[in-house]
Amino acid sequence: MPAIKIQGLTKDYGNNKGIFGVSFHIEEGEVFGFLGPNGAGKTTTIRHLLGFTKPQSGTSTILGLDSWKQSKEIHQHLGYLPAEIAFPANMTGAQIIQHAANMRGLKDMTLAQELITMFDLDPSPLIKRMSKGMKQKVGIVCAFIHDPKILILDEPTTGLDPLMQSVFVTLIHREKQKGKSILMSSHHFEEIEGTCDRIAMIRQGRLTSALNSQDFKHFDKTTYKITFRSLQDFHAIQKEEFTITDIQSEALAVLVEIEDLQINELIGSLGKKDVLSIREMKVSLEDSFMNFYKQGDHDHV
Amino acid sequence: MFNKPLFIHLIKTNRNLFFLIAGALTLLIGIVMSIFTPETMQEITQTSMDAPINPLGDISTLISFVSNQYFGNFALIFAIIYSIIFGNKLVADQVDKGSMAYHLSAPITRNQYTFTSALYLVSSLLIMFGLIFVTGYGVAELVQPGELPVKEFFLLTAGSFLLHLAISGITFFASCLFNRSSHSLALGAGLSVFFFAANLLSGMSDSLEFLKNATIITFYDTNAIIQNNSYEWKLSLLALLAVILYFFGMLVFKRKDLPL
Fold this sequence. Notes:
The structure holds 2 protein chains of 2 kinds.
Chain A (H helix, E strand, L loop, with lengths): L3 E11 L2 E10 L4 E5 L6 H9 L6 E6 L2 E2 L4 H6 L1 E4 L11 H11 L6 H9 L13 H13 L5 E5 L7 H16 L3 E5 L3 H7 L2 E6 L2 E7 H5 L3 E8 L2 H9 L3 E6 L4 E7 L3 H9 L3 E7 L3 H16 L1
Parallel strand pairs in A: 3-8, 3-9, 6-7, 7-8
Antiparallel strand pairs in A: 1-2, 1-4, 4-5, 9-10, 11-13, 11-14, 12-13
Helix pairs in contact in A: 3-5, 4-5
Chain B lengths: L3 H32 L2 H10 L14 H29 L1 H6 L2 H5 L5 H34 L6 H28 L3 H22 L19 H5 L5 H24 L5
Helix pairs in contact in B: 1-3, 1-6, 3-6, 3-7, 3-8, 6-7, 6-10, 7-8, 7-10
C-alpha cells in the first residue's frame, strides 16, 4: 500500500486555475520532491491531501484512508508544515508546542525537546514577536512532535538561515532512515537534490514530469567552457568531433559537452592548443528547473 | 464531539476579553443594585416628571429600571460586542489568518472543532449571565433587602441570556459560513448592530415603532416578563433560533473547502 496516493485529482477554480488530473503516489520510506512555480497548484494538491478541500473528481488517500472523509484518522499519522505558517495569537512558542502535544494526547516531550535543541530555538517569546524563521522552527517542531509516519512539508525551509537549512536537511535524512514517507515542496534545488528519491513537477495545475533520483543525480555528460588565446585554435576546436553547445566568438570561448569517457580525447586535443582557461559548467537540477520555470512564462504570453 | 484539550485552550487564550466584559457587566449590576434604592427612584421620577418622553423608558421601580436600562441597554451593548468578537474569532478569523491549519492538523474532526468552540461560546455566556444574576441578587439583598422581586430578576436574566444566545448564533453562523473575517463581520456584526439600532429607534417615537418587527430583540419582551404575560413562547423562539443557527454553522463548516 503506497503511503500517499493521488489519482486523477481535479479541482477547477475557473480561469485555468486549479489542478487538473494530477496523479502520483509515494511509497513507504520514500522522499518525494514536489516542484513548480508559484501558483502552479502545489498547495492546492496539498490541501486535498490534508482534507481541507474536497476534490471535484479523483481521489486522494493517505495510508489507504480517504483524505476528505477520514482526515481525523489520517492526522494521527501525519505531520504537516504549512507554507504560510500561522498560529493562534497571544501564545508563546512553548504554549503552542505544548498545545499541539495536548491535542495529540502526547505526554512524552523528549522528541520536542530534542528538536528545540537541534534547531537552537528559544520558544519562550510570544509568537507574534517572533521572526519568520523562528515561527518556522516552531512549525517544524509541531509537525515532527509525534514522530509521524507521513510528513507533508510545504516549502519547509522558508525563512531559515543557511545553517538551519542544513540542519533541516539532516533531519530529513534522519527521518528517511527511520522509514518515513515525506512529501516536500520546495524552491531550493540543493535541498531537493540532496534529499529526494523522486521529484515531480507541476505547472498550471498539471503534472508535467516525474524524475527518479538517478535521472537527476548522475549525469554522465559534462559541459566545459573553454577559452582560447588565439582565433586559430578557437576555429580549430570547432572542426573537431566534439559536441559544441554554444560559441561565444567575442570571448573566443566554446561550450563543449562531452561524455565522461571522452575526457582524455578532449585533454589530448587541448594539449596542442593555447588554452586560456577551462571551467566545468555545472549542469545541475537547477538548470533543468530554470528551463522548466521559464517555459511556464512563455506559456503565459 | 467534545474535545477537552481544545476547550481548555479556548478558555486560556480568551480569558482576558471574557473577564473584561463579564467584569464590566457584573460591576454595573452591582452598582445598579446598590444605588437605586426606593428613595433614589422616587427622586428620579420626580425630577423627570416634566420630560415629555422619558428616553430611558419606565424607570419608576427597581425591576423596571433593571429591565429597561440594564438588560435593555448596558447588557445588550456589551453582550452583543462580546458575541460579535468571539463569534468571528473562533472560526472565520482563524481561517482568514491561517491558524485554522494549526488546529485542524491535529487528529480532530471539523465538527469537533466547531462543536467545542460553540460550547465555549455558549458556556461563557452562561457564566457571564450567571455572574450577573448572582451579583445582582447578592448586592440587592445586602443593600436593600426585599426590594428586588427575585423571580422576575431571574427571568429577566435568563431571557437576556437566551437573546444573546441567539445573537451569538448569528455571529457564529456567519463565522462558519465565510472564510474571511471581513465577510463574517459584515453579516454577523452587521445584523446584530442592525437589530440593536432597530430596537433603539423603535422605542424613540411612535412613527418608528414598526421597527420592532424587524429585530429579534423584540422577542425579549421585558414588560411581558415583569407582568408575567405570555413571554414563554417568545423566549422559546430565541432558544430555537440559537439551536438552528449553531447547528447550521457546524454543518456549513464541515462541508466547505478551506483555503488553508
